[in-house]
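Worked problem 6 (solution included).
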Amino acid sequence: MKSFKAILFLLMLMAIQQPLSAQESLSLQQALAIALEDNFDIRIAQNDAAIAKNNHSWGEAGFLPNVALSLDQAGSVNNIRQEFLTGNVLENPSAAQQSLNVNALMNWTIFDGMAMFTSYKRLGQLESMGKLQAKAAIEQVMADVTMTYFEIVQRKQQLELAEKSLSISEERLKLAEQRYQLGSSSKLEFLQAKVDYNADRTSYLQQLEAYKLSKIALNDLLSREVNLDFVPSDSIQAVRELDYADLRSQAEKQNTWLAVAGLNQKVAALNRQQIGAQMLPQIDLIGGYHFNRLQSEAGFLASNQNRGVDFGLRASINVFDGFRVQRQRQNARIQIMSADIAFEQQKQSILSALSSTYTAFDNNRVLVEMETENLEIAAQNLEIANDRYKLGALPAIELREAQRQYVAAESRLIQARFLMVVNQTELLRLSGQLLD
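Solution. The predicted structure is:
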C-alpha cells in the first residue's frame, strides 16, 4: 500500500509537469503589451484623458456665442358673441384662432473680466493633468505586471527547488526502507525518513499552489481569462547599476504624481483668477430674429403677422451679492495654500519611498552576493553528506540538516534576486523612468 501511494504521487507529479511543455510561453514584453492594450485601469484612465482633451475647447471656455431657436404654435376654438354700439350683434359658436411664433436668439459674451481666457488656460491644465494621470496609471500597471511576472518566475524556481528536495528525500526513504528490511538500520530511521519525505511533499504542493495563484494574479492584471495557463519564458537577470543621487534628481524632475501635484497648484491659481473676474463688468452682444403670425375668425383682425431682427448690447456688473465673491476669493487663496502643501507632501512621500526602496535594493544586492557563495558551499556540503549517507558513514539527521541548509540557501538566493528586481522596478517608477 505504501509503495502504491508513492507511485500514485509520482504519477500526479508527472501529470502536473506533462502539460507544462504544451503550455503557452509568455515573455515579460508580451505580458506588458497585453496589459497596455487590455488592462481595465489603463483603459479607464485613457478615457478620462480623452474627456479632458475634449473639454479643452473655445466653446467650453465661453468664447463662442449661445444660439437658441424656439417655435410655438397654438390654436383655439371659442364661442364668440359680440355686441357693437351700433346695435349689431355678431355670434360665432365655433370661432377658430391660430398663432405661430418663431424666435431665434443669440447671446454672445464679448467681455467677462477675462474669465473666459482664464477658463481656457484652466482647461488646458486639466487636459495635461488627464494625460499625466493616464501615464501614472500605465506606470503603475506596468510595475505591477513586471513584479507579478517575476514573482511567477520566482515561484517556479521555488517549485523546482521543492521538487529537487523531494527527490532527495525520496531517494533517502527508499534507502532507509531497504536497510530496515535488511535489518541494517532501525525502524526509527525509516519512520523519520518517511516523515521528512511527507514534509517535503507538503512543501512541494504549497509551492505549486503559490505558483498557480501568482499566474491567476497576472492574468487578472492582463484582463484575460484568469485560469489561462502559461509558462514564463524570461528569467530573473542581473539588474543594472542604479545611483541614488541620479534617481533622486530624476524623481524631482519627472515623477508623474509630483507633476500632477504641480499642475494642481496652477489650477488652484487659475481658479482664483476666474473668481476675481466676477467683480468686473460683463458685456453681452444680443441678436435675434422673430416671426409672429395670428389668424382669427372673430374680432377686428382676420390676421396679423410681423417679423424682424432684434439686436442690442447689455452691460452688467455685480454691485453687491452678500460678499459671496469675496468669500470665494478667500477660499481660493486657502486652496492655493493647500495645493502648495500637497505638493510638498507629495515630494516628501516620493523621496521617502525612494530612499527606503534604494536601501532595500542595495541590501538585497549584497545578499545576492552572499547567498550565491553560501549556495555553492551548501551544495558541496549536501553532495558530500549524500555520498557518506549512502555508504552508511553519516547519520540520517545530518543528511537532513545538510539538505535543509541547501534548500534554505537556494531559497534565500531566489528571494533576494526577486526582491532586487522588485526594488529596481519601483525605483524606476518613482524616478519616472519606468516607461523608458
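Discussion: The first helix runs from residue 2 to 17.
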